[in-house]
Write a structure and sequence with these properties.
Helix content is 43%, strand content 17%. The protein has 337 residues and is of the alpha/beta class.
Amino acid sequence: MITIKEIAKQLNMSTTTVSNVIHGKTGEVSPSTIKIVEDYLKKVDYVPNINARNLAQNESKIIGVALKARADKYENLLMDPFVSELIGGIEETIRNAGYFMMLYISRDTDEIMRHVSTWNVDGLLLFGMLNDDGIRVSERYHKPIVCIDTYSIEGLKHFTNVGLNDRQGCFDMVNFMIKQGHKKIAFLSDNMNGVDYERFSGYKYALAGNGIHYEDDWFFKIKPRSDEVDASLADICEKAKEFDAVMCVSDLYAVQLMCALEDRGVKVPDDISIAGFDDTLLGQLHRPALTTVHQNVKEKGITAMNVLLQRIHGEKTPRQIQLPTKLVIRDTVKITN
């Protein structure tokens, strides 16, 4: 790679002049000189040494993005439409801000931290942290951190979490289904932690607020791994015969359930109503189109990254940011009133 010093020698200019043109500091450089330098840079296909420049500025211009994938859920985390849309928003914002993204996915928090601790990144985005994961990260990583959809940040002053009022969103949807005459409503998820627990709590509050008593067998647990999901859905479809509706924790699970029901001759919404959460492309494309709780997934990624940039630049940010939700009423909840 040709150096600035070599370019200056070839053009019979000072290294300062060449450097100023390369880095856009052209206030005291004549237009003719700028053209000469830029033409030569194109001729030799000059590429700035970003690492050297960032080292001199004591920054890497790299943002670490670490995703935790549960072993009992994800074989390929990026196949989830929600995660893909989220990463798209994050990557676009990182690129537009002049940074680079370093992505790491693991099922183990300790493994994530072993790798992240060795990265010379300016800040870190975390997704999928549960239980005491946040505390473990805080003990080993002290640069700016922003979490997405994390409910384990108590006492961690240098974290900001970007999420939703998941409880309210699910409450609103279940309340809507009840007002359509549905009384026996199941809840489908794969766990009872973090975001899923918040949505489950909203579901239960809606039932209680309408005088409906929740029973333990109203919780449908799906096993999403490819070697378990078919048997799991078969069992859920059998149980669903006794219910008016199912509130699903995500659009992905709602669509999987609808496909399984339709394969067994069960019509949605004529025989049973289904609602999802997220409003991803998957639910929009399915027919009948999915009634769901909308969140702007891409905007969540953009917001999280913008908050991280604020923290990198020394600005104060709130510990919790909750983005809005709204109901999107399409075709999978039967309207009876």
